[in-house]
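Chapter summary example.
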Amino acid sequence: MDLVIRQQLSAAQNHQDIQALKNTYELIKSANQGKSALDSSESFSSDLYVLCAEQALQLGYPEISSDCLQMYFKGIHPVTQFMGRAYLCQGLLYTPLSTDNLEKFEKFVMYLMKALDFAIHDPRYYFLIYNASVLYWQVVRPYLKPGFRYLLIPSLSQIVTALNQAEEEDKQWRAELMIELLECFLDASKVKEAVDFSSTAAAFIKNNVPDKYQYIFSLMVTEVPHVVSLKIHLDLAKSQIVKNHHLSSAFCLIDLLLKLITIALTLNMFPSISLQCATDRFSSSSKC
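The structure predicted for these 288 residues follows.
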């Protein structure tokens, strides 16, 4: 039974043979119902449910794909990569064709997260995390526009975290997703989250994908107002501290300067020499 099904699947895959796909499906369905014309004592591997579902989806037969996955999920099978692949395939059955179908989008994300949760616990299945991230990015393209990016924040955050945890070797890809997540935060006006995440993202990108560092820096300077004028405010505060002889005003300015320095340290985007100058001038003003 196993060999016959694999031969039909191979024909469907190698020759885009629709009839071979349908033959495979009928064999699997018949065997699952215990009505196989072949030797009923001959079993077949549970991975064939998933392989047939994947092939059916590629050839444009979502009904066959869905039925194969239902048969798979109803059974008790060994824990293998095909569990994660089944979740991914199930998710793709809910691919939203536009931003109007939020229900499909949520179901797609739900199954994708199931695949991530399955894969993250075993290094053997880390490749599924990368596969999931690529499929995710292909599906969510309609949401990559102002006013819709906020919908991606929860799922994209988990994907970025999973790729980092798995130490995915494609650092260029990780950097691209980090930048996209940052843009999602900014589009949703989540400034605090953007600032917090930019620190981690900037450090990773600077060390691993330096050609993108200037872009993430420019993105923050363009989109976050208090970052735009941070250095100007630092210089202004330092100047006023030196010139101002009123103690209460000086304390207010010192407090402002310390807050600005804290932001700069958090972002880790400005040269340390600027902060050193601030410290030097602050020290000299305190002696006046």
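To summarize the output: The chain has 15 helices and no strands.
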